[in-house]
Amino acid sequence: MALEYILAATASVFQPFNLLVLIVSTLAGLIMGILPGLSATMAIALLTGLTYGFPTSPALIALIGIYVGAISGGCQSAILLNIPGTPASAATALDGFPMAKRGEAGHAIFLATTVSALGTLFSVVCVLTLTPLLTGFALKFTSWEFFLLAVFGIMICGSLTSNGNVLKGWISGILGLLVAMVGMDTVNAYPRFSFGNVNLMSGIQLIPVMIGLFGFPEIVQSFTQVDAKVLQMTSFRMKDGFRKVRKHWVAIVRSALIGVGVGIIPGVGEDVGGWLSYWASKSNSKDPDSFGKGNELGVISAETGNNACIGGAIIPVMSLAVPGSAPAAVLLAAFLMHGFRPGPLLMGESPQFVYQIAIYLVFSALAMWFLALGIAKFSVKILGINKKILMPIIYVLCVIGAFLINHNDFDVRMMFIFGIVGLLLRATGIPSAPFLLGVILGPMADSNLRRALIISNGRLAPMLSRPICVVFLIIIAFMIISQTGLLRFIKKLAGRP
Amino acid sequence: MQTKKLFDFMASCVMIVLGIYVFVAGVGINKDVGGVYYDAPGFLPVMLGIALTGCSLLLLVASLKDGGLGARMVELKAWGRGRLHSKDAAISLIGMGIMFVYSFVLFRLVPFWLSSFIFLVGIMAYLKATRLLKGLLISACTVAVIVVFFQVGFRVQLP
Predict the structure, then answer these.
(1) What is the ipTM of this complex?
(2) Which residues from chain B sit within 8 angstroms of residue A393, using beta carbons?
(3) Hey, is the C-beta of A185 within 8 angstroms of any chain B C-beta?
(4) Would the CB atoms of B11 and A420 count as touching at under 8 Å?
(5) Which among B29, B91, B96 has the least Cβ separation from residue A192?
(6) Among residues of chain A, what percentage have pLDDT more than 90?
(7) Is pLDDT of A189 > 90?
(8) How many CB atoms lie within 10 A of CB A492?
């Protein structure tokens, strides 16, 4: 059966229109990834709105293509400009830019692109093996587990994206949950926080929130940004590049495993995957001092890690309906919009979906490799595009993306308002990813908590009698105690005579 | 570092107010609907209001370390004065103003192609992105490509 699904998905990729969509979307992703300020999340959010009216297959191909392209494209500006095109490529700049300064820009880009493709391909294997396993496990979940999973996802995302102040991450998640509370509630159909507005009664749409949160701040920031100096591209020999890839296969496999593992953790992005893989390679190196000074292993590890995160982040999307990263959160919304219901029942309801996504990832990775190397010569020109011209055009596309969901200009206004929210969050150092996760998981948390309480007549005892719930509760309690300083306080108390 | 504390202070104050509002509104919803507390639509908002207020209070306490409220107020005044005279802040604000006019006014009043054309020309001219003629050309081409792509290519109805 699996083979049939794989063949069907492969055949669909080779339909002329779908092939064209694959090439165009991957290329668009690469260009958006190359351009600093245009993140993968923004690219997918924008495309989700724009592909709303597409048939399912080309829409999914376009979304996966732009995801893979954007994450991979970021390395080119990291290497040539020392500014990562996307946060995912931040670690790549550490060694990529010194390599470019040494006149090895072409070699660095070849290595980065090749291992990016390998990282994605490795993650596809994990998607195919781990998704059915995790889905099977998730079938044991009841309302209590789903509620705690939502809380756990938001809390861990808040912890890991908060840049040292966990409270800000959690505040962001709570704000997202509050946004999800707007509109008719799913149990009593009571209009919450609607202020008599008919548009608000139907809830705040996810796509305008996403576009606003992730696109708007980048656009406004570009108004005052000064373009940095770009290094020149140099020629490279593929044979040498492949030899280097073969030589460092252990680091590639290790980084890919780290990337997939990081990707599976809810809300933790590709940037963390890149950094952790980089750190692991540096720690295992015989010459750690050479890292940061143009060590090719740094580029290889970071790029393998961040791309392996793509598949990793998709695994919880499909099995638990909990996104592994911010771009995956947008992807989850896109899947829902196109009529798929990711979660424990996915393998039963639409078993072909997992194979479809895996095959689209494979072809996107291959297309990305050819296209990225093909456009490498023009990267310098792409990076030279005036942002003050490009960003207003992007804003027009953001407006269309928000409008096309319901053909309602209310969504455009919502996009603008959440853009301001995104801008304020950024200014105060509050991460946007937990906010988005809160908006996505809010309805799941609300309906499951109330359903569970109604079934148990308001008692919490049934939750405490379920092993998975107990594990979630212990982790959540430990996070609160350790991250808020309560642990230190308890230790201090215990130390007193 | 001090600006970070100031921003934390400002953010936590706003969040505390928001948290209290959500709590009160949630209790109001529960009263409005009646029945048992756990079945009421305001149940989760009440919990979220408490959580938001709690987290924000902790953030506020942390932000008041090193100097206390007095120091933050002095910093707030200095920061406000700085922003008032900042050229970058003015550019961003006016840029957002143009985006606001496009999203809230032009988009509703005139056809999409015209509103987008006016917005692109206006913002490029304001940001001095390029020469006026080139700006006009880029704006016209962009709008034409978008309209052809969506309206003609994919039969999507644009406003």
Answers:
(1) 0.92
(2) 120, 138, 142
(3) yes
(4) no
(5) B29
(6) 25
(7) no
(8) 10
